[in-house]
Design goal:
This protein is α+β, with helices and mostly antiparallel strands and about 160 residues long. It contains 2 helices and 12 strands, in the order ββααββββββββββ. The protein folds into 2 domains: about 1-35, no CATH class; about 55-155, Immunoglobulins (Immunoglobulin-like). It has helices spanning about 10-35, 35-45, and strands spanning about 1-5, 5, 55-60, 70, 75, 90-95, 110, 115-120, 125, 130-135, 150, 150-155.
Length: about 160
């Protein structure tokens, strides 16, 4: 006898539960395959569109030197992507002590997703510093811009 799909027969009850479990797993698998994130990782091979770093600034009044340090604030406009929303894009920050010497194989910093500014760790104020910022989408594609900005002290 069956009541709401349940049966008192042990063999049929096990079969019924097994079929339901399989159906639940199938539905979950279909949802995961159809989700935008899963699709982005499978099909997105195009990096985000990103104009690069707009500014790298700090404010240290008075004489520069003497072992003083300061954080630089980096700013940029949000990247866009055909698959990943701008709110999910992370930014890779590359820092160098000479123009054009950023090591693009390893970012100095990685930002949280969706931000359009970043404050560095304290750096010596009496030494030049250069930055490049690149956008990375959810699929791992990284833009290749080389827009470099030298850190500027606005208060000198």
């Amino acid at each position: 006898m069956s009541l709401c799909g349940f049966t008192s027969e042990p063999r049929l009850r096990r079969w019924s539960v097994g079929v339901r479990s399989a159906l639940v797993l199938l539905v979950v698998a279909l949802i995961l395959v159809a989700s935008p994130t899963a699709g982005a990782k499978r099909r997105d091979h195009t990096p985000p569109t990103f104009a690069g770093l707009k500014s790298a600034t700090t404010c240290v009044p008075g004489p520069i030197g003497g072992g003083r340090t300061t954080s630089y604030t980096l700013r940029w406009d949000a990247a866009t992507d055909k698959v990943s929303p701008s709110s999910t894009i992370v930014y890779l920050v590359y820092q160098a002590s000479a123009p054009g010497s950023e090591d693009f194989s390893a970012p100095t910093y990685t930002t949280a997703a969706g931000v359009t500014s970043f404050a560095t760790l304290p750096l010596p104020v009496d030494k030049p510093v250069y930055f490049v910022v690149r956008a990375q989408d959810q699929a791992g594609n990284i833009d290749r811009n080389t827009v470099e900005r030298q850190g500027q002290n606005l208060c000198v």
